[in-house]
Amino acid sequence: MRARTLSFLKPGALEREHFDLLLEGTSIRGERVIRALEDFLIKGVPVTEACESNGVNRSQFYRRLYALESESERARRLSKFYNYASD
């Protein structure tokens, strides 16, 4: 499977809370794939290593990664409706 370019999620760039909140908005529940995604998105571990060390198929990993990417895009689009500066 050829990897698409990620627009919003960068390796090693997410904080734990950001990752957990994005994950809540998806149907991703598999522990191994979640650990692989954590390794990649929070710790910056290369995809191949994250998949191998967690026993995850790269195709499965990328499907879940793009689900998180979609959730990130959705959150970005929703954010314009929340203006807390006027509170």
Write structural notes for this entry.
This is Adhesin biosynthesis transcription regulatory protein. One of its GO terms (biological process) is regulation of DNA-templated transcription. The chain has a single domain (16-79), classed as Orthogonal Bundle (Arc Repressor Mutant, subunit A). The relative contact order is 0.20. The chain has helices spanning 16-24, 31-41, 47-54, 58-79. Helices cover 57% and strands 0% of the residues. The chain is mostly helical and 87 residues long. Helix 2 (31-41) runs antiparallel to helix 3 (47-54). The N and C termini lie far apart (47 Å).
Short description:
This is Adhesin biosynthesis transcription regulatory protein. With 87 residues, the protein is mainly α. The chain is built from four helices and no strands.
Helix count equals 4
Give the percentage of residues in beta strands: under 5%
The tally of beta strands, per DSSP, is: 0
Mean pLDDT rating: 91
Level-1 CATH class name: Mainly Alpha
Derived from helix and strand composition plus strand pairing, the structural class reads: mainly alpha
Helix content: 55-70%
How far do the termini sit from each other? Answer: 47 Å
What is the CATH architecture term?
Orthogonal Bundle
Question: Which radius of gyration do the C-alpha atoms yield?
Answer: 14 Å
Low-pLDDT parts are none
For this structure, the CATH topology is Arc Repressor Mutant, subunit A
InterPro entries: Adhesin_operon_reg_prot (IPR004356), Fimbrial_Adhesin_Reg (IPR053721)
Keywords: Transcription, Transcription regulation
Protein name: Adhesin biosynthesis transcription regulatory protein
Organism: Pseudomonas lutea
